[in-house]
């Protein structure tokens, strides 16, 4: 298995995947390498449903193996919100600042020990023959009362990581890649990678 399509146009995600799979000798392509690829509408109610939907749609389109991810923030005091709606929590514009402000407003008055939250990532690998495999990664933390840090994106400035005693936005890229939900999901995927594609590797 020498080539894999990553079902994203996010350059940051693409770079992460390329770095990870270089050691496997796998060429990574993304949706930026193809013209006029339509966005796959995320109609699922879970991270897994959305990841599978994206992966299978693109695999059927190009007849090649595809990885897709769906990820987001789960806040316990908000009954699991924003969840699968993390990117568009404050509206369709995907405005990080507006999303952060909505979470903080809803958590006003909630003490720190009750502001438990986690980032969740599901990766789906779809083969052209219809086989689909999913893996998950989770990073546990707390929601701060105000944004702290300049790095990262999304909800990183309000996500406090206890083991680092800093927010995700205060971590270097290398530190984040050690503990993030996506990094953990990718590591799980690497553990099963050879078995997943052993028939392709033998041919």
Description:
- The structure is a single chain.
- This protein is an alpha/beta fold.
- The chain has one domain: Maf protein (Alpha-Beta Complex).
- Helices cover 33% and strands 23% of the residues.
- It has 6 helices and 7 strands.
- Strands 2-1-3-4-5-6-7 form a 7-stranded mixed beta sheet.
- A hairpin with a 5-residue loop joins strand 4 and strand 5.
- Helix 4 crosses helix 5.
- The radius of gyration is 17 Å and the shape is globular.
- The mean pLDDT is 90.
- Keywords: Hydrolase, Magnesium, Metal-binding, Nucleotide metabolism, Nucleotide-binding.
- It comes from Anoxybacillus flavithermus.
- Belongs to the HAM1 NTPase family.
- GO terms for molecular function: dITP diphosphatase activity; ITP diphosphatase activity; metal ion binding; nucleotide binding; ribonucleoside triphosphate phosphatase activity; XTP diphosphatase activity.
- This is dITP/XTP pyrophosphatase.
Give a short summary of the structure.
By secondary structure, the chain is of the alpha/beta class. The protein has helices at residues 11-22, 47-62, 96-106, 173-179, 181-196, 198-202, and strands at 3-6, 27-30, 66-75, 116-126, 132-143, 159-161, 166-167. It has a single domain (3-202), classed as Maf protein, CATH 3.90.950.10.
Tell me the domain tally.
Answer: 1
- Sum up the overall morphology in one term: globular
Q: Radius of gyration, rounded?
A: 17 Å
Question: Would you report the number of β strands?
Answer: 7
Helical fraction equals 25-40%
Name the structural class.
alpha/beta
Q: What would the CATH topology be?
A: Maf protein
The CA-CA distance between the termini, in Å, is 9 Å
- The CATH architecture assignment turns out to be Alpha-Beta Complex
Largest sheet: 7 strands, mixed
CATH class: Alpha Beta
Q: Tell me the strand percentage band.
A: 15-25%
The average pLDDT score comes to 90
* Helix and strand pattern: EHEHEHEEEEHHH
């Amino acid at each position: 298995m020498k080539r894999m399509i990553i079902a994203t146009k996010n350059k940051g995600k693409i770079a992460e995947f390329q770095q990870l799979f270089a050691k496997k000798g796998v060429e990574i392509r993304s949706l930026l390498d193809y013209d006029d690829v339509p966005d796959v509408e995320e109609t699922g109610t879970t991270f897994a449903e959305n990841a599978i939907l994206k992966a299978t749609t693109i695999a059927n389109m190009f007849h090649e193996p595809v990885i897709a991810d769906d990820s987001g923030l789960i806040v316990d005091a908000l009954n699991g919100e924003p969840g699968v709606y993390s990117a568009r929590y404050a509206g369709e514009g995907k405005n990080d600042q507006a999303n952060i402000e909505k979470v903080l407003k809803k958590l006003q008055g909630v003490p720190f020990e009750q502001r438990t939250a986690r980032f969740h990532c599901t990766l789906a690998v779809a083969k052209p023959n219809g086989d689909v495999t999913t893996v998950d990664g989770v990073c546990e933390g707390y929601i701060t009362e105000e944004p702290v840090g300049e790095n990262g994106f999304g909800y990183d400035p309000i996500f406090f990581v206890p083991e680092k005693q800093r927010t995700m936005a205060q971590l270097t890229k290398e530190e984040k890649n050690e503990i993030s939900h996506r990094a953990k999901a990718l590591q799980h995927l690497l553990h099963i990678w050879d078995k997943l594609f052993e028939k392709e590797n033998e041919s």
